[in-house]
């Protein structure tokens, strides 16, 4: 799979915006917002475009904080392997809208719906919530759902 971006808008009260994916890869899971990089795009441009397509929110590239770099591996489906750049965003313009791809909802960071998210998320999102930056390799088992192996590192800069 092509490299991806994943962006989590964060409100001043600390709540995170997640979306329930309505179609495609990760359908029905809650996640941040993002997608595959397109030809000629850099990661920031991809993150801005995907956020706008999936939520209606308009971000400036300089407001995207790179907080994670993850290497997702699928032991039974190597065509799904991809890297993901993870961003927090604290300023934007516009209002959140449901889109054809995502049903958005704000969540308290202490009550994220991990049971309905990708299985790796409960390991690295708490690190980000503690203001740590993270780099790692997450390997999914043959069912493409459960975790097979995890290597996560706290880093100073992504
Ligand atoms: C496998 O573990 C993952 N965990 C989390 N939390 N998020 C992931 C994982 N793998 C991928 N993602 C994110 C990365 C992207 O933000 C989306 C997938 O993007 P999608 O395939 O929907 O990309 P689009 O370009 O929007 O796809 P279309 O072809 O449907 O336009 O999930």
Automatic annotation (TrEMBL):
According to its UniProt entry, the function of this protein is described as: Oxidized purine nucleoside triphosphate hydrolase which is a prominent sanitizer of the oxidized nucleotide pool. Catalyzes the hydrolysis of 2-oxo-dATP (2-hydroxy-dATP) into 2-oxo-dAMP. Also has a significant hydrolase activity toward 2-oxo-ATP, 8-oxo-dGTP and 8-oxo-dATP. Through the hydrolysis of oxidized purine nucleoside triphosphates, prevents their incorporation into DNA and the subsequent transversions A:T to C:G and G:C to T:A. Also catalyzes the hydrolysis of methylated purine nucleoside triphosphate preventing their integration into DNA.
The name under which this protein is listed is Oxidized purine nucleoside triphosphate hydrolase
* Gene3D superfamilies, per the entry: Nucleoside Triphosphate Pyrophosphohydrolase
UniProt cross-references to InterPro entries, sorted A to Z: 8ODP, NUDIX_hydrolase-like_dom_sf, NUDIX_hydrolase_CS, NUDIX_hydrolase_dom
Which cofactor does this sequence's record say it needs?
Mg(2+)
Q: According to its UniProt record, which reaction does this protein catalyse?
A: 8-oxo-dGTP + H2O = 8-oxo-dGMP + diphosphate + H(+); 2-oxo-dATP + H2O = 2-oxo-dAMP + diphosphate + H(+); 8-oxo-dATP + H2O = 8-oxo-dAMP + diphosphate + H(+); O(6)-methyl-dGTP + H2O = O(6)-methyl-dGMP + diphosphate + H(+)
Please report which protein family the annotation says this sequence is part of: Belongs to the Nudix hydrolase family.
Which Pfam families is this protein grouped with? Answer: NUDIX
Outline the subunit composition. Monomer.
> What keywords sit in the KW lines?
Hydrolase, Magnesium, Metal-binding
* EC code: 3.6.1.56
Domain Nudix hydrolase intervals: 1-130
